[in-house]
Inverse folding.
């Protein structure tokens, strides 16, 4: 309002000043007679009145302007001290006392101090103390304001960095994709006291990831619990309870290993929460001593495993078990369809399982009689794997199973192959994998015998469509003899051993993909003998680069690339659909195989990779 009054006064002053000046100019140009009329006297009075009004208005303007300046000063002071403004009014100036005596004291520094001078110095020191306190108070105030500003700046910088992080590409990824990635990372949550499991590590990255993990219970449903001697077991129970809570009602995938020398009380405490949730167990891998299973509280899970689908019993120790003891904890599992048994044969001979329900059965590291006798109990078996089961005693008689579709045999020694294939007849087998135990170290003393395998195919008369031969000490002619019995084969994988550090065994130790094998796989438009593998569509070869015949290899691919259906039908050979080549060696020069790129350009799925030799 003060500003408004000031502007109105100025307008009023300017308006009346202009009128007075115009009236004076008009009347000064007219002649004025000596004897003025009454109207002339009125005009003179009016002029004096207006002139008086002019000085009055000028005084009013001065008063209003002063009032305006006063109000502005008060408004500015109130604004400076308002809490919301963030500003503080400067402190009222207090004149210091020390400068008044500074020159006098300076002179005393060069003279002898007398009694009056002492009084002067004492007063100066008192005043200096007071002034220093004032300076110190001001410094503290400014330091406090600086610290407050630095704190605000630091908070703003942190918030800016967090906001800038929201622009990263990872935050544009949909939650569904993040969940799929987290599922892969949390397949094995190992509960230990030293290293936090993946689910907890991921939940500590940022708030978004934490919310996603806490809202996805199945990421917490996989747990590996290893109770070993010499470790801190105090945190196992809280970790287990945390995962039980966050997994909600999801089916659990468990891997439990219990060391024989860990006291039963510690094991029972760690497993107590897990045992209470046995009705949620979907997959279980168990390694413990059967003689103390009752002490651990595992006896309570009998008949309480309605969701258990997969069971893996690994290296069960039975040193203290009586001879007639049976292990029947998993006898009543209505959903069980997959079992893996790895351990001593004595334990497996006394285990009680619903074998008639199994669709997948794996037996490892035992004798052939125990493995094949358990396999014969599986009436609905589809996938079977027998690993290193050539030890004595061997099985007697034949096992005919018409439900098995996929068979995997891992051979550690030479007698592992006949111990399995001599006693099996699988008329509906469609896929088979025969491999050594390691890709790096060929088996010493392994002498391949193809006769048991040839007799197996003749006896079974199966329609095999997929065959894999890996890491075997086998010759090219033995492979050809087997392939001639498989006219229905559609997929073939041959992989040589990666390590050839055993020269005492000769080149036949690893060399399988030889010119003889490659020439037998080539298609001749005018053959004198029936073609080998006429229905082959997928071929995968892994061989040593230094011994591979490149021309013969390219001839195999070129002769089997038959994109013309009429020509393919005329030859009675299926067109090759995919070709994978793995080159074992120290060098990774693929330039000599550049011709394979031509086939990729016209539709053949071609992959060439390098495997470094150890």
């Amino acid at each position: 309002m003060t500003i408004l009054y000031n502007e109105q006064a100025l307008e009023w002053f300017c308006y009346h000043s202009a009128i007075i000046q115009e009236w004076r100019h008009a009347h000064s140009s007219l002649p004025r007679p000596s004897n003025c009329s009454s109207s002339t006297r009125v005009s003179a009075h009016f002029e004096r009145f207006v002139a008086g009004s002019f000085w009055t208005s000028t005084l009013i303007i001065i008063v209003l302007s002063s009032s305006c300046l006063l109000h502005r000063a008060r408004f500015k002071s109130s604004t400076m001290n308002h809490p919301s403004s963030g500003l503080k009014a400067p402190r009222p100036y207090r004149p210091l006392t020390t400068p008044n005596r500074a020159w006098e004291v300076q002179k005393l520094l060069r003279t002898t101090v007398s009694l009056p001078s002492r009084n002067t110095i004492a007063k100066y020191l008192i005043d200096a103390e007071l002034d220093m306190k004032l300076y110190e108070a001001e410094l503290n105030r400014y330091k406090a304001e600086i610290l407050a500003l630095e704190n605000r700046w630091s908070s703003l910088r942190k918030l800016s960095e967090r906001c800038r992080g929201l622009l990263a590409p990872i935050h544009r990824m949909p939650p569904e994709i993040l969940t799929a990635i987290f599922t892969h990372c949390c397949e094995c949550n190992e509960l230990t006291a030293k290293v936090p499991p993946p689910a907890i590590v991921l939940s500590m990255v940022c708030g978004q990831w934490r919310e996603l993990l806490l809202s996805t219970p199945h990421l917490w449903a996989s747990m590996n619990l290893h109770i070993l001697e010499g470790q801190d077991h105090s945190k196992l129970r809280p970790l287990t309870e945390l995962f039980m809570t966050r997994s909600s009602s999801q089916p659990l995938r468990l891997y439990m290993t219990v060391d024989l020398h860990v006291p039963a009380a510690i094991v029972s405490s760690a497993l107590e929460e897990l045992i209470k949730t046995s009705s949620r167990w979907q997959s279980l891998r168990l390694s413990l001593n059967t003689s103390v299973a009752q002490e651990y509280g595992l006896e309570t899970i009998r008949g309480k495993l309605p969701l258990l689908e997969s069971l893996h019993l690994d290296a069960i120790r039975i040193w203290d078990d009586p001879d007639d003891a049976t292990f029947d904890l998993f006898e009543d599992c209505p959903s069980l369809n997959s079992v893996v048994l790895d351990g001593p044969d004595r334990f497996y001979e006394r285990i009680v399982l619903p074998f008639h329900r199994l669709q997948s059965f794996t037996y490892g590291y035992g004798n052939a009689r125990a493995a094949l006798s358990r396999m014969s109990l599986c009436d609905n078996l589809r996938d079977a794997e027998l690993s290193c089961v050539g030890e004595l005693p061997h099985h007697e008689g034949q096992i005919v199973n018409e439900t098995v579709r996929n068979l995997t045999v891992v051979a550690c020694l030479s007698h592992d192959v006949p111990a399995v294939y001599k006693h099996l007849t699988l008329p509906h087998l469609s896929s088979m994998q025969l491999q050594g135990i390691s890709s790096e170290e060929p088996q010493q003393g392994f002498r391949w015998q193809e006769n048991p395998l040839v007799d197996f195919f003749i006896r079974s008369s199966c329609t095999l469509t997929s065959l894999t031969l890996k890491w075997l000490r086998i010759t090219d002619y033995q492979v050809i003899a087997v392939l001639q019995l498989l006219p229905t084969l559609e997929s073939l994988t041959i992989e040589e051993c990666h390590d050839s550090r055993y020269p005492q065994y000769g080149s036949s130790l690893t060399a399988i993909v030889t010119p003889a094998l490659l020439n037998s796989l080539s298609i001749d438009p005018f053959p004198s003998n029936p073609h080998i593998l006429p229905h082959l569509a997928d071929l995968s070869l892994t061989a040593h680069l230094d011994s591979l015949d490149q021309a013969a290899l390219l001839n195999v691919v070129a002769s089997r690339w038959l994109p013309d259906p009429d020509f393919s039908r005329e030859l009675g050979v299926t067109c090759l659909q995919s070709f994978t080549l793995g080159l074992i060696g120290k060098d990774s020069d693929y330039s000599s195989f550049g011709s394979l790129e031509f086939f990729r350009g016209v539709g053949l799925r071609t992959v060439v990779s390098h495997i470094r030799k150890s």
Observations:
- The longest strand covers residues 252-258.
- Residues 98-153 form one domain.
- The chain is about 40% helix and 15% strand.
- The longest helix spans residues 115-165.
